[in-house]
């Protein structure tokens, strides 16, 4: 099934995430593979024709837009699929029932992926006979642009399924990360929400405004963490002593911040919503995500170019090294 | 003093931060302004000659490297200064004594800035006669590259001093943010450390590794937050309903993450240091910050280009609007 030009990908669900994945698969899957879309939405074909082009850029050699197949039943959608990816409503009952039906009609070795941001595979798979094939493939929105995919298997998901899923995304230049346990909210959101919580607290306490928090992040850790994540950055901050050196130097301040987190003007945090929501509305109105996504793409292109360049340099240096080893061993 | 070509800037302290600020001022201050450097370090002149060029790129029209003045006493360093910026050791007693001596020799209206990452201006100024001029100007490391400056005044700092400081940095394309109270760790570090804490916890609990956390952040919130900070991003995530809509949709998951933060495999967090430090060392060795800074600059250049472009478009649309208003009012 990994032969890229004969791959049947089926998407179930056509909300923002589903359509964004559709755009991704269209442009990253070599023709004559097939992309099938299924949803219980009325006038599905017309809806897809009208809304998908907003996300989509046609790429040479990949599946043409005109070749999208709209399925009229779940059975039709999944019967020949190699990959079945659901981006349906965030509702456990709906997902449980869906997978039972998918299992009934889908080929035995099809990969089953859920885009859920919170319902673990182990709960979704409760009623399945074969629980080894299902895992969460949680994107960072929007998935046709952002490289991250959190792969969150249940304890029943097989290693082979995890491996095949990783291979699929890596081959398409994406960053699939295997999350080792079904943690609440997985990892990316937990990290982001930890920062968001402190941001809300500081706004509520009157230390900074909503837009000042954004300016702070946009002009410091945003660009830094695009290039080197927090551990790598703080490890660098400690010089040759690494992360340990960093904590030796300013661990005291770090601990003070941790101890004080959420405690500025303690007790005020109840009822932050009205203040913070209002400020966001006043400052931003309705955000133009098209513009944001365009600039994000430029940033990601720079990062990709740099990483590809670094990878090429490593390859060259590896091949020079093995050449010189060959020469040494032939002496 | 704001006449840019006749500005005397004095830096006290020549650690990494001090030298990085020296590089910034050299390239952002029009000649024939003067940059004076003072430190109690032995062989200061030789040291500056040897280490500063690592940070520095010569710019046309700005102070040439050869014109840096090395002061041999504090009195000499500050007597004619318009701006005095200290980046000395993080030690309250040293800073308290420094400002008393600076006050004795410096012109009455010189701006006094501390680069401290944690010692509030109100504590540093305790022994000063005039406490209105001192404020913290906390950079995000390294300041010759990163745009953020947190301006953290004490309750005694005058509004005029805050305003002059903001004007100085804005005129140089930087992002000075006025922090409204002397919060422990200020704001940027509090936000970053909140995320770091959860990251450490998840690594310690075995959910992800050090390098996986970095890959996650580098391929999701890093690039996203470089373009749009957390509030703006989640406000956009709520569509036309904004941040409130975002919380209506997934506030449940957010709250679950907040409630669960630090609680995966609860109780294990004691003694995370050894595991996390070791993993960082093994995975990263000594980080090449030159490479990191070069790529960060590219990202910041893209962001600056986009923001300048957006600002130009706003100007054009404003001027078109005022033209049309003029025409309307002259009818």
What is the CATH topology descriptor of the largest domain in chain A?
Rossmann fold
Determine the number of helices of chain A (DSSP H or I, runs of at least 4 residues).
Answer: 13
- Derived from helix and strand composition plus strand pairing, the structural class of chain A reads alpha/beta
Count of the domains of chain A: 3
Proportion of beta-strand residues of chain A: 5-15%
Unreliable sequence segments of chain A:
none
Q: What's the pLDDT, averaged over the residues of chain A?
A: 91
CATH homology superfamily name of the largest domain in chain A: NAD(P)-binding Rossmann-like Domain
Helix-strand topology string of chain A: EHEHEHEHEHEEHEHHHHHHH
Helical coverage of chain A, percent range: 40-55%
Strand order of the largest sheet of chain A: 3-2-1-4-5-6-7-8
The major pleated sheet of chain A works out as:
8 strands, mixed
The overall strand count of chain A is 8
* CATH class group of the largest domain in chain A: Alpha Beta
Quaternary organisation: homodimer
CATH architecture of the largest domain in chain A: 3-Layer(aba) Sandwich
- 3D shape of chain A: globular
Most extensive interface: A-B, 96 and 97 residues
GO molecular function, one term (chains A, B): NAD+ binding
Pfam families (chains A, B): 3HCDH, 3HCDH_N
Keywords (chains A, B): Oxidoreductase
Organism (chains A, B): Massarina eburnea CBS 473.64
């Amino acid at each position: 099934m990994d032969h890229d030009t004969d791959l049947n990908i089926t998407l179930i669900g056509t909300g923002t995430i589903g359509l964004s994945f559709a755009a991704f698969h269209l442009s990253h899957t070599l023709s004559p593979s097939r992309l099938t879309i299924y949803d219980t939405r009325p006038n599905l074909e017309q809806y897809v024709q009208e809304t998908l082009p907003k996300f989509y850029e046609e790429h040479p050699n990949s599946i043409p837009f005109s070749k999208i197949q709209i399925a009229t039943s779940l059975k039709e959608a999944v019967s020949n699929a190699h990959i079945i990816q659901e981006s349906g409503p965030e509702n456990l009952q709906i997902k449980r029932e869906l997978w039972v039906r998918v299992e009934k009609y889908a080929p035995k070795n099809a990969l089953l992926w859920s885009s859920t941001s919170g319902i673990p595979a182990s709960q979704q798979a409760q009623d399945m006979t074969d629980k080894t094939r299902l895992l969460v493939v949680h994107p960072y929105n929007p998935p046709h642009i952002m490289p991250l995919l959190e792969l969150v298997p249940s304890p029943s998901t097989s290693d082979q399924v995890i491996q095949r899923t990783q291979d699929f995304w890596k081959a398409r230049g994406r960053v699939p990360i295997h999350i080792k346990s079904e943690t609440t909210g997985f990892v990316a959101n937990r990290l982001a929400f930890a920062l968001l919580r402190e941001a809300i607290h500081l706004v509520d306490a009157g230390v900074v405004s909503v837009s000042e928090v954004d300016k702070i992040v946009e002009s410091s850790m945003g660009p830094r963490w695009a290039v080197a994540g927090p551990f790598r950055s703080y490890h660098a901050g400690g010089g040759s002593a690494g992360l340990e050196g960093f904590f030796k130097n300013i661990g005291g301040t770090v601990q003070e911040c941790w101890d004080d987190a959420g405690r500025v003007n303690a007790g005020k945090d109840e009822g932050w919503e009205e203040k913070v929501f209002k400020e966001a509305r006043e400052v931003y109105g309705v955000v133009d995500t098209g513009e944001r996504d365009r600039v994000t793409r430029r940033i990601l292109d720079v990062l990709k170019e740099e990483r590809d360049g670094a990878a090429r340099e490593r390859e060259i240096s590896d091949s020079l090294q093995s050449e010189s080893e060959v020469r040494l061993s032939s002496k």
